[in-house]
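Reposting from the mailing list since nobody answered there.

I have sequence plus structure tokens for a pair of proteins and want to know whether others read the tokens the same way I do. The first protein:
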Amino acid sequence: MSIRITSVFLTLVAISAAGAGGYYAGSNGFRVEGLAFSGPATSKPASASATGPVIYYRDPDGKPFYAASPRKTAEGRDFLPVLASEDLNFDDQASLKEKPSATGAEPSAASARKILYYRNPMGLPDTSPVPKKDSMGMDYLPVYDGEDSDDGTLKISLGKMQRTGVRSERAASRVLSVPVRASGTIQLDERRISVVATRSDAFIEKVSDVTTGDKVAKGQDLVRLYSPDIATAGAQYVTELSDPERRSVLGGARQRLENLGAPADLIKEIERTRKVPLAVTWTASQDGIVLERNAIDGMKAAPGDVLFRIADVSTVWALADIAERDLPRIAPGQDVAVRVRGFDDRLFAGKVSLIYPQVNKETRTTRVRVELANPDGILRPDMYVEAEIATGTEMPVTAVPASAVIDSGTRQVVLIDKGEGRFEPRVVTVGRRGTDYVEIREGIAPGDDVVVAANFLIDAESNLKAALRGLSSDAQKPDQPKEKPL
């Protein structure tokens, strides 16, 4: 496409300011990063056939220096004016030989390709059977025989493919990994929390040196207390043990001790010594961390008062909130990778143990429980976590890179690379979406080459060609656009 120098002047100035990096000067033109620039690049003045206003000034020695207004070199020589007809051209050399001149002349006879018609350079649905210019003075572009076939394919020149960065990749059978990511928090396992409490009135005599946050072991002494009800039941049990005849009359003293929560060690001590201790020692029922301590020396505790709350933190829960749309892909037993803020270098592995039955109406999420081993105790309640649930299938499916799918919202299209610059748009049915690949259920098969880069540009060109074919087929109204789907 012929581009007026006014649209690229800043680019040329930037190139010259870069210190000649990536270009070389010649007698008939110069090249920047593989692009051929046709136009004056020597010290010769403008030809007599050049027309139009002066659009910029160039160095008289052909050096890559330009100016928007008249200026002189360091030696005092005037910069040479460049007229509008001496426009630069950024097309490849093959295109330069085949394009019509600015005056509307036909291409040289050396070109074997036949020009079917000329299309608008800005992509507008307008064609012409003869060379012409648009309202901005840009030449209409020729459409050659073979580039406008009716077999559903699109032909693109190798030069244009290189400039746009077209790249293809082969569709293949792959096992898709479809992770679902969600945030959540660490919570204690409700089944591993216990409390130390009395079932009768009691008076605290002495509390062990245990505070909130301390680790305790199962059977460790926590508090020594006196309970009148336990003492009375213990005395009755001693009487029953001493006099079997009274046991049949009274009876149930041992059961009353158990109902009052008397420790098993206390009952064994009464049976062995036939005496009732005045104070009873309460111990920890499990290994864990003291979450709460309410016992104080000398206080009176009512039935049910919590003296200590202990939690086993060797196993904790990660409660993650899953979006409602992702719920169908979640199932108990799926592997979960959990990262905890503050421990980015560690990855905790677990499995989905439960999907809660409620949906939060404000956030439209459902809570999922993941059990995590915590042997060193670094996972603490209310820590923030990021969970990644693996929901992919083990069966391989036909998949292409995600960038290969052009999704308009109502249909999905991929471009099949037919080779030699020919491309075929094809409507496909997509399935699951993985991290980098998308499942294709219908439309292509393993082994097909699909475009994964610059496919949007090719798709736009394909739609334009389809519209132009519709225009050219209407001989009566060549200038009226006509829609024609792919």
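The second protein, same order (residues first, tokens after):
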Amino acid sequence: MLTQTPANEDYFFIPKARNSPIKQSFSLVQGLPEKLKIFRIAGSKYWQVRFFNHGKYIAKSLKTTEKREAELLAQHFYADLKMRGVVNERGVLPVLDEMSAYIENQRLLHDLIQEVLATEQERLCRDEITLGSFLMTKGRLEGLVFDFLKTCTLRQIKTETMEAFVSFLTEKKLAPPTIVGYIALMRKLLRLLLRKELIDKHPLFPKIKSPPNSRGAFTVTEYRAILRRAKTLRGVAFTNWGDGKRPWIKKKYQQMPESMNALIRFMVYTFVRPGDIRQLKNKHVEVVKGSFNYLRLTLPEVKRHKAPMVSLPSAVGIYERVLQRQKEQGFGLPDDYVFFPEERNRRLMLDIIGWLFNWILKELDLKQGPHGTERTLYSLRHTAITFRLIYGGNIDLLTLARNARTSVEMIEKFYASTLSAEMNIALLHGKR
């Protein structure tokens, strides 16, 4: 005689759809409203939580297979809903007016951000800021600034709110200079709130100390060692890629090029930035010979600076030899780039130069300075300015700053900050 299993076992209730809840898994969590339940679905091994609010479910995966842990995570989920204003402190659904106020607050925040961005867009059109600055402002306002303020009542912003904002940014592990930049954007929003009479006074911000981030100049001894190593590595292929790592450098650049030594010296004798090397063409360089021999570099605008730069005398010979080698290779026209003219992807070219320079630094164990500062290709510009401060006679900071396309304040803050009394001992011991 055949017997049949009664069709009331749990496995007969497993739904066909992967995202459908398993009815038998629904459970209440002690201390939480009945409209919040934890459950499981057919297509996942993890527990889920959902809360019924204003005719729809707010759901989330709890990423755990343990029911007890799921109950604890559900309590955190509910606490987060309360913090965001979805439910009030009594644990019941907020009235429609409260929810409307919450939504209206977010709309106001969105409109304020768009108004600030419209002002920045006008500054961009007037050429007061660069496109990069505008895009960075847009990303920050629509990113972390919005994420923080969306849970705040804009009409009730106080000094404590701004302190919490700085703590919020600190938890994101942002550097002090970056936090200072975010504070500047928050000030713009607050000034707009004040102008619209949505707040009574401008709240105070905590003070953030941003120590100078020197890019680590090289000493004369280190600089000479770098030049010597760039020469000895000429034609040598790099092989130390590490286990399981594939080289991203083009094969023709996997060995040290002959022009690397000239590029390093050119940067030190001309004060240029790595970004200048990327876009430097022969038409930007004029050789001047007379009472003084130098290169006049009329580079494209960078960081709001347009004035020509003047090189040291040694740069003339370096450029003439580079230009002669270019012509031997079929380049050397006004629109040809001075360094690596065969590489049309100039952003990639800059990455390649940076990688080659790091290769030299690691060979000499000079990647980090004596105080742990990371050295990069930009350190050559730092070295150029520092050498002028030490060995440039009675050169004044204004002349040096204008020629290097920077400001006196930047030189004092970042470049002169690494100087010591011993470096200028001749001036210190000098007599009238």
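Reply #1 (J.P.):
I read it the same way you do. Residues 10-83 form one domain.
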